[in-house]
Amino acid sequence: MRSSVMPTTNLRSGHPMPTAVSAVGLRKSYGEKTVLDGIDLRIPAGSVFALLGPNGAGKTTAVKILSTLVTADAGDLHVGGHDLAVDPQAVRAAIGVTGQFSAVDGLITGEENMLLMADLHHLSKSEGRRVAAEFLERFDLVEAAKKPASTYSGGMKRRLDLAMTLVGSPRIIFLDEPTTGLDPRSRHNMWGIIRGLVSDGVTVFLTTQYLEEADELADRIAVLNDGKIVAEGTAEELKRLVPGGHVRLRFTDPATFQSAADALREVTRDDETLSLSIPSGGSQRELRSILDWLDAADVEADELTVHTPDLDDVFFALTGPASTSSAANQPKENLR
Which residues contact 285 (CB under 8 A, 6 or more apart)? Predict the structure, then answer.
């Protein structure tokens, strides 16, 4: 059985780090509906882990279980070094949770929301004011601090919600679709805040349906479908699961393009754009081989670009209608 403090390698620093969240054989059903069907997770401290999946895949249920809001049917679960079944109170003291729907009270001001959270964490009045002021400034909410939270924009409410979560100085934060409904600028602002937290050593467990968000933030990504994790790895590793990558050669001179097409017969040509496509998985070794091949054929393109499938391609391939019955019953692609 895996230990909750099993050393692993932090993907940012390269140094051994303990595991912040560990789940082995996590199961949960509601009646005859199996929501989580024996999933395994291991998340290094000080990293961002993203859980992707379509609506109803079980992402929010996983967050609720690991944050002690819902009891699992089975599984060996550790969060922050604490056994969830033995000491859930210690887990609660180590984590913060920001759900899909804001916990902000719109009837009181942003500052009063922060002070209320400080009271719930049993901070003294002076310490509560200090912490509230610090986070209001950090999250760019000073000007709005005295205004009712109901007047805040969606992005401001999400920032206040996250600031409230941080009052207790949690080392592990669960963010359940934290940028849903935000405009692109607010989403990018939230990404900056999350990166700042991780640089301070905080572990972030993120669920999202924005694939760009996972690509931008996550050290590791797991894809959850039909209650099972069907793939796990870095964003680049996941992209290599999907065929369709290629190296594209573009030419400006039609004669050079034609001679290259004649020399490289096993390629796809596009006469309109004067480009040739060579199938490639995008690895360094494969790219080096292609470059050697081009040199041997005396082909020199004006532009060479490497195209790989993006996370959208991965998501649809692993969670689309055709994969629902098949991928979920296959062993997961663990790319550690």
Answer: none
Q: Is the dihedral of CA 130, 133, 134, 136 positive or negative?
A: positive
pLDDT digits (tens, 9 = 90+) for 226-262: 999 999 999 988 887 877 778 899 999 999 999 888 8
CA distance 283 to 225: 27
Q: Which CATH superfamily is domain 8-104+152-239 in?
A: P-loop containing nucleotide triphosphate hydrolases (3.40.50.300)
Q: What ranges do the domains of the chain cover? A: 8-104+152-239, 246-307
Please name the CATH architecture into which domain 246-307 falls. 2-Layer Sandwich (3.30)
Rounded Cα distance between 228 and 242, Å, is 19
What is the spatial order of strands in the sheet that 333-334 belongs to? 95-98, 172-176, 203-208, 48-52, 220-225, 228-233, 333-334
Q: Mind listing the pLDDT tens digit for each residue in 204-226?
A: 999 988 888 999 999 999 999 99
Tokens at 169, concatenated: 């100085």
Give the DSSP letter string of 259-307: HHHHH--SSEEETTTTEEEEE----HHHHHHHHHHHHHTT---SEEEEE
CA distance 209 to 46: 22
Instruction: Evaluate whether 333 touches 232 at the Cβ level (below 8 Å).
Output: yes
